[in-house]
Target: PucR family transcriptional regulator
Amino acid sequence: MPWPIPSTRVRELIRQGAEIALNVPESWMADLDTVTLSGPARSRIADDPVLAEATRRTNRANLLTWAAANVRAPGEPVEAQVDDAQIAVARDMVRRGLDEAALDAYRAGQSVAWRYWMKITFALTRDPAELEELLDVTSQSISAFVDDVVTALATRMRSERAELTRGSQAEHREVIALLLEGAPITRERAESRLGYALERTHHAAVVWSEGPDPDVTTVDHVAEILARPAGGEPSLMVSAGSGTRWVWSQAAPDLAAVEAAADAAPDVRVALAGPAQGVTGFRRTHLDALTAQRMLARLGSRRRVAHYDAIALVALATEDSERAARFVSRTLGGLEHADDALRDAVLTYLRSQSNATRAAELLYTHRNTLLRRLERAEEALPRPLADDPIDVAVALDIVRWRGAGG
Model:
């Protein structure tokens, strides 16, 4: 089908619309992100903070590429610009066990982009002939652009999959996938292929960077601290993406060393879990570490390191982010936005079973100072602290982990 050549008037309308598209409201982009990460087929992308954030970045990159091209040359074909960041996303999808079907997210994004593009065009003209020509040209342009992007990424994924079928890392990933899925592989065979004993105690970690250009050397450095054998205990580390490492160790991690390394690498995060025993423990600790990873991403927490044992209740309470936010606001009232010292005082007091003397000791403060802070907290809370101490403690813990409060 020959490429349509738009009239001078429609070329000008496309240029005007593309200029608007370069500065669309953030709510439009949020809608695009939501749709591309929704649905059962894309749940594995949405649940992975690294893939989800990379998908959001590529959504914006694709929109800007198409719009900028149509400002320069309205109505002409737009060449797909698959950059290193998009190639990294395709590579990481393969390493997570996803296939080309995952690229359906781009098609979903296309439908949202087209809906908003029609809003833009109908604001530019109501002339039926102009609209028909404008929509016909841009429909073909957007479809061809997305087709080219998907084709390029699918080719890259096939190449990456062929590359990953060779070497010990590929074999390790294959065995780990079978173990995590509970597939029928014997313990002896799995241990032989992994070079790692499964009938012992396991500590698991996920080390990752959400940045667009992850510093692999830094990620590996933090992961190696976790995988470093302590007292001769064996460990296992595999690459789960360009900026993600999965680690299992039969020795407890040196948390001080891990936290120091993570603090020195602002883009690197660590989620920990364990200990747990045997093949079930191997699987359970990894899934718990993934839960901690997802919670940090969901809450926008600035914490560098999170252990599942410390966040299990918060992770459960915040699975629905909107409902969790309403729960926090309803429970804490003005205390939600109080200073950190006041919130920490109340949380420590509740965790000390409402023992003011013990709480003051833990806070390294005078008991009277603590009591004054509790009085201030009572004024900010919608209900007396004694009426629902458990709800208040959970809400404060959520605030402690999220955003700036984390």
